[in-house]
Structures are given as C-alpha cells and as structure tokens.
Sequence to fold (331 residues):
Amino acid sequence: MRPRIVAHTVSYPPFRRVGAELATHNLLRYLVGQGWEAAVVPHGATALDGWPKRRATSIDVDGVTVHHPATSALLPADIVYAHIPFTRQARRHADRVGARFVAALHGGPPGWGAARLAEVGADLTIANSETMRISLERTGLPVHVLRPPVYAQEHDAGETERAGHCITLVNPNRDKGGDLFAELASRLGGVRFLAVGGGYACEDVPDFSRLRNVEVLPHGTPMVEVWRRTRILLMPSKAESWGMVAVEAMINGIPVIGSTAPGLVECLGCAGRTLPLDDVDAWEGACLSLLTGVGEYGPARMRAYRRAAELDPTPDLRATERALVALIDRS
Fold:
C-alpha cells in the first residue's frame, strides 16, 4: 500500500504563494513522485475565498490533492503534517486515524514556535534551517532539518548573460524592509526599483506613489519575469528564518544584499552581503558598488550561482522521506 500524508495548512498554491506553503508543496510533490499519496486541507480565508466556484470538493495541484475543509472529514493517513497555527487540529486528526504527527515550523518570534509545539507534542518536528533547529531544541522533541526546497529548473529565468536593471524587494511590507527600500529609492533617484506584492492578507506597506522610480507588481506575478528585470535583490528583513526568494535569485546569478537575521545569514552563506538595518548608508554603498563598481558584479554573480548549486534540495528531500518512512515503520 502506498504511504499517505495529509497536511493541514493556512492556505496553499495556487491560492497563495508564500514561503512556508511553497516549501510544503515542494516536499509533498516530491513524495508523490516517490509513490506516496499526498493531500492538503487548507483552513485559511485566502484558500476558501479562492476556491473554484463549481463547488469542487477537491482539486489537483501537481499530483497533490487539495481538499475543501468542509468536505475533508478525517482523511486516512500514515503521516499527518501541520503548520502552526493548525497543529491542534492536526494532532487530533493523527490521533483519530492512528497516524504519526509531524509539525513544521518556518518562522515566528524566538521561542514562540517551540512553546506552541511543546503544547501538542510531535513525533517529529521539521525545522527549515539549523537556526530554527536550535530554537526548537528546548522542546525536547525530535527535530529534522529540511531547508525549503527550491528547484533550479523552475526558477531559471534564462538569458543568464544579461543582468536586469532593477533593485528588487519581494513583499515590501515594513517587517520585510519596505521603509529601507523606499529610502534607498529616494536616495538613488536614477535607478529603477521593483517591489513585488506579498501573499499575506494584511500588509503594512509604505506608500511608494511619490517615488517615480519605483514600480509595484502584484502578488502572483510570475517570478521569472521579476528575475529577468532584477540586478540586485534586497532582503532587509527584521526577521528571517531562511529565505526562499534569496535562493531563487541566486539560481539566476542575482547578488543578494540582506539583513543580519540569522536564518538569512545561513541561507546566503558566503554568497550574499549582510548589513545592519540601522545603517542606511551602508546599504546605499553596497547597492552602488554592485551597480557601478568595476569588476565587482561579475564575482558576486558567480558566488550566487555557486551557492544556489550548494542548495540543491535533492539530498534534503531524500533524507526527509527516510525520516518519515522510519516514523511509519515504528507504528
């Protein structure tokens, strides 16, 4: 019999495209490719508002069956997988169908996720980075690291010899650095800036309308189009437990300038430049050095390519499948 995994999430592609849900989708479709059955129950309003009008009880997304929560009942499963905030529902689901419970944590304030997971317990906890693993050690629960899988062939924008011209920020809310982005755009009036809308329902985004050199693209814009126009990616996040968008950029040889958030530092390795958020002059100088510095952009581009290759998700995905199979075998 094929192993079965059911995930409880806030939303899911194609209704919303945010890091945690994309990471889960990439894991589930990998498992489908290995012979698993995979299903998802999204609970959030973004998924339910976007549900097909024909009242389908389920839809297929890359071989993963996405169920409407009103019709999903207790789907049979060997593994029940959950994101916070739906760990309690998933825990009950696992207990009722005799499945193993796996919880995934992709962000949140330090200690918050550990406290939430300690309340419900888990047979295995998935951390999205070594940084997150360390924060979860306090739970005493088993922790496995799965860095968010990003498939290079799906994010390569082509035309790799021609760099774009824009300085780009994806998800320009204030927690992701929208104010610093706006300040840099104001200072560098002759440079094109590109802001790509985020996937969260309530975004605290600065008003860019006064900045004629800033173009705002909506959430859901195909990212290959964004990467073709991007010369530098900015990630001035107040907190970041990894940084899938940085990996996508590096696949295209785009240098990343990021904050000193520990997860982002881990993600970038030696490829990116990280700066304190309170030193706007340093951010301006780093941008200018990549825009105008003779001989600087090419080496930064090569470092990005090398780091992206190091982050090939295949080994992590194989190790994660082995960990899940081991859980089932213990049942």
